[in-house]
């Protein structure tokens, strides 16, 4: 067969496309956690970008300011946690620990003079180099893991930035080359986009609300109780409580339960009474646990998806995929709901994608998230998109 024939050329291009898709799929599979977290940051930051863009008529500047609004508090949190950790470490090991370590370094003059005075003692110390090497390797492994985490975080934030800046270009390319505005695929993508924004924004807003509530509860508790039963580093504990809210069901228990146990032990040692620690546990359980899970998160996640479905998506996603399942589980739930409620009937009947009487998910024909009023999952969180400005216009 002539290589210049259209059929042969088409087959070669098809093979090249398959190889390209395979390579991209391999990268996606290898960095799926990084990509999913980047999508989460993008959807969580998109309302902020819109607010900034109303005041700054430049997409790049708006995206940059939005990412700064997210990254700077993160850097402050990490720096504050590092300072607190170093201060607590110095308190535990004592003020002379650093000097004791320096005195044993080979470059220290006192160390060199000690070797010259007693070489045998120095040789005996060399026998412990194996244990020191194991400790050094553990430190190196820990540093490597931390560096890997920083790398993946940087990639996720970079992906979020480029999506915030260029999402309209991506959407325009998809409309022009993949699915037109009148196609069923475009309608389904609009609905998935709208539901993802509502779900992710509900999660971010819940974490922020719990963090603020924890700051008030922990610092207010310290202001009312005796120093013997006061919380150490209440501000850091409050920030960690907010981050723990990402973990479904467990949420703030990761922080306030150990903190309450510490307060009970301090109360038993100091004979200060158990009333204050018990009150701390009760208030934390009600304000930082029950209220966010039963009221705040469903209310902010909108009415398009049932709150029980989202809860199971968080739990099962984390159990199946690990840490990134907290973000990947809701994404899969949204896609499955939209396909099952709208695209699957289209495949069976051949009719265009339509709501079809389904009471879950955003209506793909209108992007109206307030349609599903009968699912009992609370009021809508994000503003519903209109046909004149589809969700895909920002994605």
Overall description:
The protein is mostly helical and 395 residues long. It has a domain at 184-384. 73% of the residues lie in helices and 0% in strands. It has 13 helices and no strands. Helix 2 packs across helix 3, helix 5 (109-117) crosses helix 6 (119-126) and helix 8 (184-224) packs antiparallel against helix 13 (325-349). The longest helix has 49 residues, at 129-177. The protein is globular. The two termini are 44 Å apart. Residues 105-109, 355-359 and 369-395 have low confidence and may be disordered. The chain crosses the membrane at residues 12-45, 65-86, 143-164, 200-221, 233-256, 268-288, 308-337. Its main location: membrane.
Keywords:
disordered C terminus, 395 residues, 13 helices, mainly alpha
Helix and strand layout, with pairings?
Blueprint: H1 6-30, H2 32-53, H3 59-93, H4 97-102, H5 109-117, H6 119-126, H7 129-177, H8 184-224, H9 234-244, H10 253-270, H11 275-300, H12 307-321, H13 325-349
Quick rundown:
The chain has 395 residues and is mainly alpha-helical. The chain is built from 13 helices and no strands.
What does the largest sheet look like? none
Low-confidence stretches: 105-109, 355-359, 369-395
Number of helices: 13
What is the general shape? Answer: globular
Beta content? under 5%
Tell how many strands the DSSP assignment holds.
Answer: 0
Structural class: mainly alpha
Mean pLDDT: 76
Rg value: 28 Å
List the helices and strands in order. Answer: HHHHHHHHHHHHH
> Approximately how much helix is present in the residues?
over 70%
N- to C-terminal distance: 44 Å
């Amino acid at each position: 067969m002539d290589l210049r024939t259209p059929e042969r050329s088409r087959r070669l291009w098809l093979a090249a496309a398959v190889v390209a898709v395979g390579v991209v799929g391999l990268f996606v599979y290898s960095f799926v956690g990084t990509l999913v977290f980047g999508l989460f940051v993008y959807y969580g930051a998109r309302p902020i970008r819109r607010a900034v863009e109303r005041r700054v008529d430049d997409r790049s500047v708006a995206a940059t300011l939005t990412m700064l609004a997210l990254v700077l508090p993160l850097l402050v949190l990490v720096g504050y946690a590092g300072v607190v950790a170093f201060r607590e470490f110095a308190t535990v090991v004592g003020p002379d620990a650093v000097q004791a370590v320096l005195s044993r370094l080979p470059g220290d003059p006192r160390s060199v003079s000690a070797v010259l005075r007693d070489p045998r003692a120095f040789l005996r110390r060399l026998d412990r180099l194996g244990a020191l090497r194991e400790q050094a390797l553990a430190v190196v492994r820990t540093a490597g893991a931390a560096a890997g985490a920083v790398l993946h975080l940087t990639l996720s934030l970079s992906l979020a930035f480029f999506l915030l800046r260029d999402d309209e270009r991506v959407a325009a390319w998809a409309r022009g080359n993949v699915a037109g505005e009148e196609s069923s695929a475009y309608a389904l993508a609009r609905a998935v986009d709208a539901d993802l924004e509502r779900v992710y924004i509900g999660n971010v807003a819940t974490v922020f609300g719990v963090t603020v509530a924890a700051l008030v509860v922990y610092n207010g508790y310290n202001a009312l109780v005796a120093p013997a039963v006061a919380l150490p580093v209440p501000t850091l504990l409050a920030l960690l409580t907010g981050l723990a809210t990402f973990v479904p069901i467990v949420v703030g228990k990761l922080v306030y339960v150990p903190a309450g146990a510490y307060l009970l032990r301090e109360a038993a040692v100091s004979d200060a009474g158990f009333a204050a620690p018990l009150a701390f546990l009760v208030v934390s359980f009600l304000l930082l646990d029950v209220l966010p899970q039963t009221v705040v998160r469903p209310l902010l996640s909108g009415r398009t998806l049932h709150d029980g479905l989202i809860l199971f998506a968080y739990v099962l996603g984390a159990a199946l995929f690990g840490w990134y399942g907290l973000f990947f589980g809701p994404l899969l739930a949204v896609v499955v709901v939209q396909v099952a409620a709208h695209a699957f009937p289209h495949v069976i009947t051949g009719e265009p994608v339509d709501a079809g009487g389904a009471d879950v998910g955003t209506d793909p024909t209108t992007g109206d998230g307030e349609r599903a009023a009968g699912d009992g999952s609370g009021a809508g969180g994000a503003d519903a998109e209109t046909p004149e400005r589809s969700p895909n216009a920002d994605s």
